[in-house]
């Protein structure tokens, strides 16, 4: 029995019990243990807890940053203790509000950090910087107050006027509703077409989204082009203005020197007329020059000599008249012998090359 009363065994048993309790705690509520180990604890005073309980979320700008750990009754209302992550820094002027976090009515604590200095561990947000949720009792009281202040006589008169107006426009409402019905039926019959149009519009939108960078580049290039065109327009405007100024100056110069320029212009007209005549003569001479050049090229192209035809160079033909005179022959004499060298049929005597 003495061996079971050893101090080492008692210590080991105590450590085992503590370890088992820690394992159970970690298995049941690991998130709460992690928040206790890594979070910073704060508290806030509220005039009314409004259904807030332990385990509700604590949010900053819609993001969960902690959990409510305890809701207790304080001296001036409810004291809510909560833990937030150590990465969230709350200012000294931070405000807290209890709001509805879901459609089922779950409550959350919303924090709005403010202030240049940071809150220390365990600081309490006072009642002046907290807001309680809007309760049903307050809603009923506000409704009662508003209803009591309502002028029932004016309300009844307004309802009577509305009823009379509806009675008067009832005949016009029937065709209007019939038109709405036909429009609805037309839209229902065109549902497939509308779906196709919407799909095509979605495709166009997708293509435009894919080509957005190119469209932006095109717009920017268009802006650059317009800027260049504006610059060119300004340059052309300046050129036209300068041209007009030069024309005015030349007009003034001509008027001032008209007496000196008139004889010069007359002589210039005479020179121009002479040049036109010479131009016509040159135009007539060029075809003949062309033929002469062709003939000359043919004459000198057959060898290193110049070929030409010179008529009436044969000596007998040149001496024929002298021979006729020496022998006493006269023109028309039947005894006159035939010419030694008669003319050819074409009437052109033979020549020599």
List keywords for this structure.
single chain; 353 residues; alpha/beta; eight-stranded mixed β-sheet; two-stranded antiparallel ribbon; 8 helices; 10 strands; 14% strand; elongated; disordered C terminus
What does this structure look like?
This protein has 353 residues and is an alpha/beta fold. The chain has a domain of 109 residues. It contains 8 helices and 10 strands. A hairpin with a 2-residue loop joins strand 2 and strand 3. The C terminus is likely disordered.
What is the secondary structure topology, with strand pairs?
Layout: H1 7-28, H2 30-38, E1 39-46, E2 57-60, E3 63-73, E4 78-85, E5 95-100, E6 107-112, E7 124-125, E8 130-131, H3 136-148, H4 152-189, H5 191-210, H6 212-256, H7 258-300, E9 310-311, H8 315-326, E10 351-352
Parallel strand pairs: 1-7, 2-6, 5-8
Antiparallel strand pairs: 1-4, 2-3, 3-4, 5-6, 9-10
**Low-confidence blocks of residues:** 345-353
Helix content: 55-70%
Shape: elongated
Give the strand content: 5-15%
The run of helices and strands is HHEEEEEEEEHHHHHEHE
- Structural class from helices and strands? alpha/beta
Task: State mean pLDDT (0 to 100 scale).
Answer: 77
C-alpha end-to-end distance: 169 Å
Round the Cα radius of gyration to an integer and report it.
63 Å
How many H/I helical runs?
8
What strand order characterises the main sheet? Answer: 7-1-4-3-2-6-5-8
What is the makeup of the main sheet? 8 strands, mixed
Extended strand count: 10
Quick recap of the structure?
With 353 residues, this protein is α/β, with parallel strands linked by helices. It has a domain at 27-135.
């Amino acid at each position: 029995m003495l061996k079971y009363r050893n101090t080492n065994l008692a210590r080991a048993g105590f450590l085992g019990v503590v370890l088992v309790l820690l394992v159970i705690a970690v298995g049941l509520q690991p998130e709460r243990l992690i928040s206790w180990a890594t979070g910073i604890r704060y508290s806030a005073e509220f005039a009314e807890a409004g259904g807030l309980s332990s385990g509700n979320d604590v949010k900053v700008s819609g993001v969960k940053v902690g959990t409510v750990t305890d809701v207790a009754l304080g001296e001036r209302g409810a004291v809510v203790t909560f833990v937030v992550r150590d990465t969230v820094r709350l200012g000294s002027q931070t405000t807290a509000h209890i709001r509805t976090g879901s459609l089922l009515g779950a409550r959350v604590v919303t924090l709005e950090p403010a202030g240049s200095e940071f809150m220390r561990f365990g600081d309490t947000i006072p009642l002046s910087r907290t807001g309680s949720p809007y309760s049903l009792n307050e809603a009923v009281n506000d409704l009662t107050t508003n209803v009591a202040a309502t002028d029932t006589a004016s309300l009844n008169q307004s309802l009577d006027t509305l009823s009379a107006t509806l009675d008067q426009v009832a005949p016009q409402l029937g065709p209007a509703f019939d038109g709405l019905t036909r429009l609805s039926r037309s839209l229902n019959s065109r549902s497939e077409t509308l779906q196709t149009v919407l799909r095509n519009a979605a495709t166009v939108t997708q293509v435009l989204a894919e080509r957005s960078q190119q469209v932006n580049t095109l717009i920017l290039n268009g802006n650059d082009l317009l800027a260049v065109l504006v610059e060119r327009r300004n340059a052309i405007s300046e050129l036209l203005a300068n041209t007009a100024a030069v024309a005015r100056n030349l007009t003034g110069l001509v008027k001032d020197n008209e007496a000196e320029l008139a004889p010069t212009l007359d002589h210039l007209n005479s020179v121009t007329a002479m040049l036109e005549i010479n131009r016509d003569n040159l135009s007539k001479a060029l075809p003949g020059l062309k033929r002469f050049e062709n003939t000359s090229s043919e004459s000198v192209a057959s060898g290193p000599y110049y070929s030409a035809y010179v008529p009436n160079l044969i000596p007998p033909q040149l001496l024929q008249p002298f021979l006729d005179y020496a022998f006493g022959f006269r023109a028309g004499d039947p005894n006159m012998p035939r010419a030694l060298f008669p003319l050819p049929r074409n009437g052109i005597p033979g020549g020599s090359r």
